Each structure stands twice: as C-alpha cells, then as structure tokens.
Amino acid sequence: MFKQDFKYYKSRKPAPSFEDVLNLKHPNNYKVTSVSPKNTSKTFFGLKPIERWNVYEIVDRPGSIVRLLLINNPFTSLGQRYWVTRCLKDYSKKPNKTNLDSHDIIPENVDWWDYSQNNINAGVLKKLRWATLGYHHNWDTKVYAEDMKGNFPKDLSSLCSYLTKSLGFDNFNAEAAIVNYYHLDSTLSGHTDHSEQNLDAPLISLSFGQTALFLIGGHTIDVKPTAIFLHSGDVVIMSKAARLAYHGVPRIIQSNDSSWDISPEDCSGNFVNVEKDNLRICYDKTLWGPFEQYLRSSRININVRQVLHQGQLALD
Ligand SMILES: O=C(O)CCC(=O)C(=O)O
Ligand SMILES: [Fe+2]
Fold first, then answer.
1. How far is the CA of 186 from the centre of ligand 1 (A)?
2. Ligand 1 shell residues, CB under 6 Å
3. Which domain of life does the UniProt lineage start with (predicted)?
C-alpha cells in the first residue's frame, strides 16, 4: 500500500495540509470530530491546561473501525524541550537498548549523546535510529521476554497516565516504549503493532521536531491509507483497531515550526517525577543549543505501549 504513496510523494504533488485534514477536503474524506478531554484539577508539568487542548477523533472513512485520537500539541515549549532532552541525553543510554549496541561505533562506557557532541565530525549523531525502554522490543521475533526488560522511566509513565486518563482510558500502564529517531531522509515502512499481550490498551505516540507524514490504512495492505501530518508536540492515541491497522511514515517534512521556543506559559504545571538536571538544560539557552540544533533536521517519536493485562504480573 505504501508503494503508491511513495510514488505520490516522489512526484512532488503537494501533500495534504493539516487544514485539509480538518476541513475534510482530502480525497479519503475522513471524518474529524472534536473530543472534550476530562478536566482534572491538576495541570501536569509541561502540558498546557486541559481546557486549551484541541482533541480530534479521526475516522478514516464512514463506518471504519480505525479511529485515532489526535491532540494538537498540548505541550508547552518547555515541556517539548524536556522530552527532547530526555530522548537524546537519557533514553539513548544504557541499560536501554539502541540500534548502535550491535555496532562498534561508540567506545565502551561512553554515551552516544556525549560522544556525538565531542566528536561532531564523526557522523554518529545521525546513526542513532531507535532506543527501547521497559520491555525491550525484539525486532526479529517481535516477542517480548521477561529477561529482556529494564525499568520504565517514571516521568514518561506519569505523562502517559495523565494523557490517557484525560481522554477517558482508565488504568493505562506504560511498560514498553520505542523511541524512533528520524532524519529528513528517514522512513518507517508499513506495519501493525501487535506484539503486546494486551492489545486492548491504547498505544500512545508523541512527536517532537520536524513534521511527519503519517499514513494509516486498514487491517490488510490493500486498503488505501489516510494521510495525517504530525507536527512537533502532537500526541496520537491509537486504540486496538488503529494499532492493528497498517501504518507508517513515508516522509519527514522540514518545517519552520519552532514551538519549542520558550514562551510565558511555561511556568505553569505540577512537577511530577521531573528530572531537575533536564529542566536546567531547558531553561538555559546555551545548554539547550545542541538539542535544538538536532531537532532542526530530525524528528523524535516516542511510541509507548502497555504490554500486560490489568493485574497480570509477568508475561505468560
Ligand atoms: O513515528 C511514528 O509516528 C510512528 C512510529 C510507529 O508506528 C512505531 O514505532 O510503531
Ligand atoms: Fe507502529
């Protein structure tokens, strides 16, 4: 299914704009409905107050079971900075696993981010493609294992609980994540996400940096996909039917967006499990500089999953 869309984008026809999506002008004619998030009393660190979120439900064709919830960048600029520093500086570190583990590119006991900053010409910055957290995704077997598991970061788990609760999903436990690092020439081919034992739990996708053209089709590869732009800060929540529908990213599009530039709203929010060192970087123009530089030609996607059923203590 993605073949035809690659051709479409190679032919340089303009891609549909986000406004086209919202105005139902796209040929797929998908339906977008506004959704009201549940108001909770506290504001979570790094997120705008709930009453300022724009949430849409996207149904790709009448009667379709493939439904996505899209929150149009609910993050403050400081919030975006925080998650970007976590993905680059921390989530890419051991004991988390990355695609670089099997290559001899980085000296033993040196972290990728530090190494890339001290060896700017070595080209390692663009070599990191993914990191896995919690239950590590097994790219070959697609099967999780109890002995391939690390601690899941508390800040990310709190964020996901807050986001899902606000949208009416109760008891979401973040247990596994893939952090995808994309550059302007990166693509992610069509796939479904079916490795988790609990397929009823939603899957949460957080995007930062450059814009992705995200395609989602149906449960077979011959369903023509729907295109959605994912901008910096956008959150997508995929329910069971959507995660089992083929989806992928055929193109990253450079944008002029810099919604991570500090703005006055940034002082609000309740600080839950926040790493103070990262906050220091976010507030400091010089320390933030290298992270912003990376973001100008890259996109980071954090894809969070619950693996186990409610009350299940370990994998079967
Ligand atoms: O980058 C994205 O928006 C999608 C990533 C994805 O589908 C995945 O990691 O399973
Ligand atoms: Fe996926």
1. 12
2. 178, 180, 188, 193, 205, 207, 212, 214, 230, 247, 249, 301, 303
3. Eukaryota
- Nearest CA residue ID for atom 8, ligand 1: 303
Claim: this prediction has a pTM higher than 0.80? yes
Strand partners, 35: 55
Distance from residue 162's CA to the centre of ligand 2 (Å): 21
Residue nearest to atom 3 of ligand 1 (CA): 301
Coil/strand/helix, residue 128: coil
Cβ within 8 Å of residue 169, ≥6 positions away: 201, 202, 237
Closest listed residue to residue 73, CA positions, set 276, 280, 263: 263
Instruction: For residue range 54-74, list pLDDT tens digits in order.
Output: 888 887 666 676 778 999 999
Distances (CA, A) of 4 to 201, 212, 223: 31, 18, 11
pLDDT of res. 7: 36
206-264 tens-digit pLDDT:
999 999 999 888 888 777 788 888 999 999 999 888 999 988 998 899 998 899 997 76
d(CA 312, CA 146) in angstroms, rounded, equals: 13
Nearest atom in ligand 1 to 212's CA:
3
- 3-class state of residue 107 by DSSP: coil
